[in-house]
Amino acid sequence: MIILDKDQMRRNTAIFPMSSAMKLTGLTARQIRYYESLSLISPERTPGNHRIFSMNDLDILLSIQNYMEKGFTMKRIGEILNEPHKVDTPEILKYNEYQRPLLNRGDLSRFFQ
DNA sequence: TTTCTAACA
DNA sequence: TGTTAGCA
């Protein structure tokens, strides 16, 4: 199927400015820009060159937070997110069990821990 | 006023 | 990563 799922399209719609990404993920602008440089996320840009994030971008950012909390290095996280074939290691699978549910179904509980 | 890039402590 | 300078 060439056309993405309706929901997937909406989740890929970029509308959040840096300030929103920072509040929603708890990350600093510096960190977010750094992760983009590692191709972990690919936010769109406004005509003025300002980044605009989609829900999927934020979701990835949240996942990065999870991995960091579990002690993964940015190098390792980069491999995990950019090269799926490296994810099937006992090491990763073990931690994936603790991954929180993705940003969907209107579940906002993740924002209130 | 907010965000951006680049670069240095 | 933090922070700051100088732009847009």
From TrEMBL:
Family annotation (InterPro entries): DNA-bd_dom_put_sf (IPR009061), MerR-type_HTH_dom (IPR000551), MerR_fam (IPR047057)
Species whose genome carries this gene: Salinicoccus roseus
Cross-referenced PROSITE patterns: HTH_MERR_2 (PS50937)
Domain HTH merR-type: 15-83
Keywords assigned: DNA-binding, Repressor, Transcription, Transcription regulation
Stretches assigned to coiled coil: none
Superkingdom field: Bacteria
Cross-referenced PANTHER family: HTH-TYPE TRANSCRIPTIONAL REGULATOR TNRA (PTHR30204:SF65), REDOX-CYCLING DRUG-SENSING TRANSCRIPTIONAL ACTIVATOR SOXR (PTHR30204)
Pfam families the record matches: MerR_1 (PF13411)
Protein known as: MerR family transcriptional regulator
